[in-house]
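User: Please run a holo structure prediction.
Assistant: Happy to. Please share the sequence and the ligand.
User: Here you go; the ligand is fructose -6-phosphate.
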Amino acid sequence: MELIILPTADDVARVAADRIAGALRKKPHGVLGLATGSSPLAIYRELARQVESDLLDLSGVSGFALDEYVGIPETNEQSYAAVIAREVTGPLRMDPELVHVPNGRADDLSAACDDYEKEMAACGGVDVQILGIGGNGHIGFNEPGSSFASRTRHKVLAPQTRADNARFFDSPADVPTQCLTQGIGTILEAAELVLVAQGEAKASAVAAAVEGPLTSMCPASALQLHRRATVIVDEAAAALLKLSDYYSLAFEVSQS
Ligand code: F6R
């Protein structure tokens, strides 16, 4: 795992966006794995800036969202289908036909999850997956206790996740209780993972993911099993890392 510690959240977005743009420039018909939540928003803004400046063309790139709520309509502006359309597909000038979100409104949720896996496989799998991390160490909506072998499936959100995401809704009671999420096994199949975290509220989850044991109690610790996982954090999110001097040295050497 490569760990990059940068002074500010803006630096995190810029460096992450450059990695992602670099991977997709080499593969104009590649597949981008999309996270929602606040962590990747500045990455999307930076990618949109590159697209507007004609430095990047994502019109042939497919997108697959990590997860979706169950129990709210697509017209709810907090559904991830709506968030992805607003924050990603439009600003990044991606082809809406190529951008996929799990169908949390399907009558048969289990079949919707299986179909999602098939669609990802038909596109050749994800080339670069953007990830945030929950305060409880989740990736996607794989809450603590999720199997590292899990696939896209119907899950119940942890109370902490509902509390953390209440800021996006009018009232905490409006936060859905269930979701569809790519599994940890699904996420680990992406060719490259880029996880970003900003702010002190993420510091203990980042330390557990990067330096803690491999454990389903911290789903993000599964990144330790991946050959090409990069974790890009600001100083506040890096505050509890024991080896931060070493990571900074390694990053400096890689840049020289
Ligand atoms: C959302 C997702 C989640 C978030 C995580 C952090 O698609 O996959 O794992 O990345 O809950 O959320 P924020 O970025 O809002 O702190």
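Helices lie at 9-26, 41-52, 80-89, 109-122, 159-165, 184-188, 203-211, 244-255.
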